[in-house]
Design goal:
about 300 residues, alpha/beta, eight-stranded mixed β-sheet
Amino acid sequence: MSMHILTRSWRAGLAALAIGIVASVAAATAPAFGEEVWKTLPDPKPLPKPDQTGTLDVDGAKIWYATFGEGKGSPVLLLHGGLGNSDYWGNQVPALTDKHEVIVIDTRGHGRSTKGDKPFSYDLFASDALAVLDHLKIDKVALVGWSDGGITGLDIAINHPERLSKLWAFGANYNVSGVKPNVDKDPVFGAYIEKAGKDYEKISPTPKDYDAFVNALVALWYSQPDYKPDQLAKITTPTVIADGQYDEGIKPEHTEELAKLVPGAKLLILPNLSHFAHWQDPATYNKELVAFIDGP
């Protein structure tokens, strides 16, 4: 999700998180979640053992990738959300590898990928993903994007439609007005930020650079994406625009409008789930995802 935050207090909060303050405060003050599934943040299952992993030098950064189910069928690319990493697809990869080769990528600066010196942009993230596909000699994929990964998918669908067979964009916005201004007050989202920070320290090749990483990401979220209706109208890729009923950050009317702007797109709202639906109810999420990927 591109979380363009409209208040200075939220930006200050993220800066504090970058040096480890918000995590400790959130742990001490976050209210207990209720029994509603959309108020929970379960950990995803670990990724299965990959067929291969590697890093690719792209525009000053080292981009990490892994593949699963090589040779099993048409390829599917999974792109995670902001602050996250490819391990967050642990519930989805096994659901797809029966019929598909699956590729995961740690977005530039995230997870096991390095940041480089270029300012973050969705166009840059898209170029990184396409460079990995070129390296793997994969011409076309079904792209499954969550949050920032979904926005990157929209960017590829707009600018490189020949590289996509299908697009699943979950919890994505097409401009900054689509984000709820009070997302920083949500306890589930706060718990996600805390988790992401801890995971960064564990797997990043630059574990001490979390503040610089967060600041670069905040700069992106303040200004992007900004896709115009005429750009979205040019998308020809079969598309699902999906979200959870209780997304913590994306306005539901924005998701509905995005689905209308992409020609032929299907709008899918998963009931009683949130921005983290793929963790909260992987059975329901995977059923809808696989039906789309394997369908006509």
